[in-house]
Amino acid sequence: MSSEPLRVALAGLGTVGAGVVKLLDANRDLIARRAGRTIEVAAVSARDRARDRGVDLARFAWTDDVADLAGRDDVDVVVELIGGSDGPALTLARRAIAAGKGFVTANKAMIAHHGAELAEAAEAAGVALKFEAAVAGGVPVIKGLREGAAANAIAQVDGILNGTCNYILSEMEAKGSDFADVLAEAQRLGFAEADPSFDIDGVDAAHKLAILATVAFGTRPDFDGVEVRGIRDVVAGDIAEAAALGYRVRLIGVAAADAHGLYQRVTPCLVREGHPLARVTGATNAVVAEGDFVGRLLFEGRGAGEGPTASAVVADLIDIARGIGGTAFGMPVASLSAAARADPGARRERAYLRFIVQDRAGVLAELTAGMRDGGVSIESMIQRGAGDSEGVLVAMTTHEGPARAVAAALERLEGSASLIGRPMVMPIVD
Amino acid sequence: MSSEPLRVALAGLGTVGAGVVKLLDANRDLIARRAGRTIEVAAVSARDRARDRGVDLARFAWTDDVADLAGRDDVDVVVELIGGSDGPALTLARRAIAAGKGFVTANKAMIAHHGAELAEAAEAAGVALKFEAAVAGGVPVIKGLREGAAANAIAQVDGILNGTCNYILSEMEAKGSDFADVLAEAQRLGFAEADPSFDIDGVDAAHKLAILATVAFGTRPDFDGVEVRGIRDVVAGDIAEAAALGYRVRLIGVAAADAHGLYQRVTPCLVREGHPLARVTGATNAVVAEGDFVGRLLFEGRGAGEGPTASAVVADLIDIARGIGGTAFGMPVASLSAAARADPGARRERAYLRFIVQDRAGVLAELTAGMRDGGVSIESMIQRGAGDSEGVLVAMTTHEGPARAVAAALERLEGSASLIGRPMVMPIVD
Hints:
homodimer, alpha/beta, Rossmann fold, six-stranded parallel sheet, 13 helices, 35% helix, elongated
């Protein structure tokens, strides 16, 4: 245990960066007791020096060029809170690690895309690379899987990884509202970004899923292998039909590894009431992992925001201050396997299918023939006469079967004059 | 990273000990990838060498005297799975640590009683002392609080820490059965010990709570400061009344630290439906921690059994193999504070009170006068005419007030000829 302070440079002073400063101030003595030494901010960098962030920054050295932080002799660890998979964040990461600095980041996009390269560089330089805040905010799920569940072969990880989507879906559920209305309200309240596409199109959750999969399975990060669909096409009727069937609609990231390879998908799903992910509401994140000895583990908490994200960043700093080492992904990059991608069409599951159709004779016959010809076995079907002129909702659930059968059935129905808009498919999680 | 194997001695070959051997066999290669080296069992010791444990033990050195494991030159870490707060387990722990061995244990009683002494010895010897399996079985909650939440001042920890009690309470709930019947069934099924008193009287949960409190608050372990009440006195009527009010009965360990000191209690509680601990059924364990920056964290999973406990033991071994160090309780023993015990009577809460009374005039007047004179404000009250001759159930809930008021009211009613048996008091967790 060293009595020298751990000297930190902060790159980026948005909500999370300011939160880190606040946390290090508020819990300074407690952190020193836990870490065995104090953690001191030595230097900071951000775009706008003049902006009031609610914290006193005058006591820290300031550099305008964020990349300069990597070269400072008075810094042991660089904390990157700029964001973006490439650009200044990546440049800083490469330089800081090459300069022998520890590196802590909340940047899921960068770790999902460049995590293997950076982890390899960190191993070569003998420094720590840590990113607990990149997945599920304050919830220590990276540590939980990388260390807590390390004795297990993990078969599958399921998670609610994007608080914005979960907030929107649970608001739609609570109020019966449509997607667009809830999104607008969420933007007004600051729960959704002005450009919300990274969140609502599932990209943010996919970044996190690719990182989780690497830690859980010991496979190389494969963001491009994640099948991604967001929540834009979920309508109020889907949530109502799901509820009638005993399910809730959630954006679920699932990663599974078996003899067929690695399967990664982010998509809205029907989650059975009673499943731990079904009752997760609002901006909460939760991850369920299935280990061969431990069974099912659940980690849950706040997935974003100043306090939770700062908590995860500073936990990483305390680990470094304590001398708790270990590799970024739980094993050396050279030991990570390059898992083949499993054929998504082969995945066997039940599914929910929803169509908006013209209210005319023969439509149901056409739909059901399409299912039959695609090889889909229908478990339940309901048609709801809509009050408006925009057609009738038909929802069905299928028996378990390969995903490719559903795709084949929908292909047969493509272009049908009976259909209004594109059908919605959601896997069922029981 | 060393390429030498980590050599382990196993003391105790009951369910968990055999599970550790099975796990190290089953996931041998995966563990070696994660740990950076293999983990090898070098020697074992147990009471009965001849017993068939379903694993091949002939390949390991055997010693009849468990204490001999501490002195072996071919051992880096001793794993203690004997149990008991003192006796052979404690002797082994002291000797192993003094001999410079790492020490891993699932022994909550020993850590609750002697954890500070052993942690201090481990610090002096420069070896690891780890006990993830001692609390919540396979759920990495010690790591989660000690490291994952380390940046936070934690205000309170609530947990379902005993799977036997939770199994019994959730079976009583599901079947409307009485305690004695469910206990007998649980014993028949192997979910409860032949002598179940450590579990059902709350002592096991109290051991775990004292450990959790130490990690969460940085206070010295104070098992004797835990107020303990088990579940023997919970009757089917309590569970029915709780359900009618929107609550479930759970054995909850709560530890809170504030300016008044450290408060630790294990007691059956009414937990509001919707609270994460209310939906925990069967032998599952769960812990909720409230941090000042991270907010509420939830950890949940299997709290006991061969696989989950072995998972936690081997996770500790992997940490040691990886060279992940750190102190046993998250800070040096010298930094742990000796928190004063908070006055339990000052704790403000709502409570559920249940009486079995004679079915005669004036009883309710007597009860309500007792409440008034004790200073308890009644929120709701119900009397249920019972079908049998053993009296009538009266249940009430109180407004929030100091626990000492309830105690004072019950003291006034003590010895009343109207009461059959002792009243039941359960705090309400909203």
